[in-house]
Write a structure and sequence with these properties.
- The protein is mainly α and 192 residues long.
- Among the domains are: 3-36; 75-171, Orthogonal Bundle (Cytochrome Bc1 Complex, Chain D, domain 2), CATH 1.10.760.
- Helix content is 38%, strand content 0%.
- It contains seven helices and no strands.
- α6 crosses α7 (161-171).
Length: 192
């Protein structure tokens, strides 16, 4: 054998040795990628709903009770009534939540916050003559804070229900913050 053949044989021998002693070589063809295994993947199928009559309750494993969630703008969502009393304690808690989570974008409710000054578009003015609070029920406000709306993120990860409802109580104290229901539709005139 000449030197080129010996060098080639050595290189093939080294690569062959590495291939036979590597974990990949021992795994093939049995070591199929785990992503292609025959297991059920998360979110691959819809879970069946809870059986009829099941009632959630507080427990050590799940300290947060189940709270029904409704679609924003739905009749059920609009009809939600604030369960938090309008005392000083809840108003203070609501103001704290507003100052923490809402002020960066919505400012004081009438003048937008620092985020809008930085050029971020689409932030709603909440209070004052052109504010949105007058048009939204307590349920709409709660669901907006809980689930988000448009560019506004959901804050259910940061606030519990008492804090969100307290925030709604605080929003109602802003200038022109009270809900004004729309006028009833005019009755149709009978054709003559």
């Amino acid at each position: 054998m000449n030197s080129a053949t010996r060098t080639t044989a050595r290189v093939v021998g080294v690569f062959g040795f590495l291939a036979l002693t590597s974990t990949v070589a021992f795994g093939l063809p049995w070591d199929v990628d785990m992503a292609d295994a025959q297991t059920v993947k998360a979110y691959e199928y819809r879970m069946s709903p809870l059986p009829e009559g099941v009632v959630p309750h507080d427990s050590m494993l799940n300290p947060t009770p189940f709270v029904e969630n409704y679609a924003l703008g739905s009749a059920e969502g609009k009809a939600l009534i604030n369960p938090v009393p309008s005392g000083a304690e809840h108003l203070a808690l609501g103001k704290k939540m507003y100052d923490t989570y809402c002020t960066p974008c919505h400012g004081d409710g009438q003048q937008l916050g620092k985020v809008s000054e930085a050029g971020y578009p689409g932030i709603a003015i909440l209070a004052g003559g052109t504010g949105r609070l007058q048009k939204l029920t307590d349920g709409d406000l709660y669901l907006t804070v809980r689930n988000g709306r448009g560019l506004m993120p959901a804050y259910s990860w940061a606030m519990n229900d008492t804090e969100m409802w307290s925030l709604v109580r605080h929003l109602r104290t802003l200038p022109n913050g009270a809900y004004v229901p729309p006028p009833p539709p005019a009755p149709e005139e009978a054709p003559q």
